[in-house]
Amino acid sequence: MASTEKVPDDSHAGFISMASTEKVAGDSRAGYIQHHGLAESIPMRLAYFSKYTVALNVGSPPTTYNLVVDSGSAVTWIGGRTPYDKTGTKTRQRVRERYGEGSSGGSFTGTIFIDTVTLGGELTIPDYELAVASRTRNFRYDGILGIGPRDLTANTRRGRPGTYPTFTECLVDKGAIGNNLVGIFFQPITGDPDTDVGELTFGEIDHTKCTDDIVYTPITDSPNISRFWGIKQSITYGDTEILDEFSGIIDTGNEYISLAPDAYGRYKAATGATFDQPTGLLRITTDQYNDLRELKFHINNHIFGLIPDAQIWPPFLNQELHGGENDGIYLIIDSLDTETSAGCGFILGYPFMQRFYTVLDGDNRRVGFAQTSFTPATTN
């Protein structure tokens, strides 16, 4: 395995890896990760206790935009709140994308500008095709940093069919990083701004965050889900089957772990939870919490389990929930709008990734997970 050297005096905790080839353990597809060039780790901050953001500098002189990190999108855009200074060259290309489900989902429309963008200290793209919003719906942030697969760019630009390079692919193309790969590290929310942070590592894996081997699973071949960071898994609660093996999505933009209604109903029945109308979440009593069992995600013959503490909404954030009561115990499992017959059995949001290091490997079309020191942590 390549040795890793910390970059001196780099506040963004970048890593330089010696050139080598690493055989990836636990991957039936026998993929390889090439270790070469510069990789950089970028801090993420928790905004409004709901979304993780990174600071993207755009133009010269630069303007900073705090963008939501979204693995469920491959489009990077700004202008949601902080206006664009128009330091770049405007094109005639129009762009549009929708997010989320139903009436609660958001969207933006805008125009492509060619400008210089920089993420962290070293990750610069001098002629990036950046989307600038002219109109948004249900969105209160500066924009989105899309780290989804390239297939998600399809048909987002008017008059330009097909796909176009993602932000990560552009970093590879410019030689800023060596691999089309992103490592993601979150930790459970505590309310302390110094610890409620995450880390994106572009181009390499930060193995210091992992306490065991990374287990990889290929991107699913399920129609539509294969466009995302989509995988297959089954789910059990204790010994109770919640979801037979099915395809679903890894999404850093999701605040919950969302299950198809049939699987959600089985989880609700198994826990004895009741639906809380004001918050829209499942609620349990103290006795039911004491009886909670491990929620197990079966991925590529490995089990990734969420302890009871990891299944509940942080109680100190109850006031952030619409209609939340201070002494309420709410579960972070919610329901999708569509049944599994529609093709998606689950969306694993950041509550799952707060307990497991996640690797999005575009070169080898796979997703990896590993335990961290926060996998067994009791924080709630």
Helix content: under 10%
Q: Report the sheet with the most strands, covering strand number, pairing sense and barrel closure.
A: 15 strands, mixed
Rounded Rg? 20 Å
| Derived structural class | mainly beta
Overall geometry comes to: globular
Number of strands: 27
Low-confidence stretches: 1-30
The first-to-last residue Cα distance is: 37 Å
Percentage of residues in DSSP E strands: 35-45%
Integer average pLDDT: 88
Number of helices: 4
> What is the quaternary state of this protein?
single chain
A few lines on this structure:
This protein has 380 residues and is mainly beta.
Structural overview:
- The strands form 4 sheets. The chain has a 15-stranded mixed β-sheet that branches. Strands 22-21-16-17-25-18-24 form a 7-stranded mixed β-sheet.
- The radius of gyration is 20 Å and the shape is globular.
- The protein has about 375 residues and is mainly beta.
- Residues about 1-30 have low confidence and may be disordered.
- It has 4 helices and 27 strands.
- The protein starts with a strand and ends in a 9-residue tail after the last strand.
Which descriptors apply to this entry?
7-stranded mixed sheet; globular; mainly beta; 380 residues
Layout of helices and strands:
Blueprint: E1 4-6, E2 15-17, E3 20-23, E4 32-35, E5 38-47, E6 51-58, E7 63-70, E8 77-78, E9 89-99, E10 106-119, E11 123-137, E12 143-146, H1 167-173, E13 181-185, E14 197-202, E15 215-218, E16 230-237, E17 240-250, E18 257-259, H2 261-271, E19 274-276, E20 281-284, H3 286-290, E21 295-299, E22 302-306, E23 329-330, E24 333-335, E25 346-348, H4 350-353, E26 356-361, E27 366-371
